[in-house]
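Practice problem: predict the structure.
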Amino acid sequence: MAKFKVVTPKGLSFAVGTGGGYHFENEALTALDAEIVEIDASSENAFIDAAHDADAVYAKGMKFTKRMIDGLQRCKIIALGTVGSDYVDIEAATAKGIPVTNVPDTFIEEVADHAMMLLLSSWRRLVVQDRMVRDGRWKEGRPALNQDRLMGRTLGFIAFGHVARHVAMRARPFGFRMMAYDPYIEELVMSPYGVEPASLEEVLRNSDYVSMHAPDTVSARKMLTEKHFKMMKPSAIFINTGRGPTVDEAALIKALQEGWIAGAGLDVLETEPPHPDNPLLKMDNVILTAHVASASARFDPARRRRVGHEIALALQGYWPRAAVNPNVLEKGDLRRWQPYSMERGPAT
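Answer:
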């Protein structure tokens, strides 16, 4: 029997297409004599029965409720291989003193690239243009390109975290004027990116392109409603590579149908996958991708290695690198760690 038991839901592996198994996670865990055990998590009771004595939980793709978390008797960490943490009851984990970790900085470059792709593709009506050529409507496409040039247009950000900052770095050479709404970010953080701080209303009223990056927190759900889309320019394009539930999708659909805004580029939706009768699927002024902004050849290996390292730190008694609920760290038994030494491991 291994020294440490790390449980994870059976049938929800991140290993699809990468050779199977948990070899990336185990790069950090094997030396500690920690074993990842797939368990039945088809019900709360099944999870509690199998995970009550777990030293760590590798959470994936399903709801982790308060009752499930309360059933953990000696768990040191709940590790997620995603940026989003909304499927775990963070409040319950915090009350239990368990740090919950995610991978907030593993896919920043990819998501920023994808946001720019959606912006540029929406601006040039790429999907419609492609269809016209394939349908033999070559001449129709040329006069349809009557959009303003990008130089001098305004790009507005809602939330200015890591992804938004990298989008700003990519957008700046195009000659955009840029502004951002984020009450949690200091003005001095925005300035080096050439971004002006602004209110939400200022961003919406003045932007030709609005890029949504708000996280899916309780306070941010349905953050954008009808009144917000009515503030935007009729020529504006809305981009969302953040989280679908931050937008009232019915309001967005109405805005597109009634011409309050000109178009949208969406990697995320309120319900995923969308229902076949979702009007967004029929709109020529909308470009959709299947929540794949973070995907690349390093997608699974990077996040899975990160999960392994986070669990390994906690099992050794050290703080993980990226806790969603960092306030539990000071109060718990884990100790602050210093940068690794190849010979000594984490410094005390």
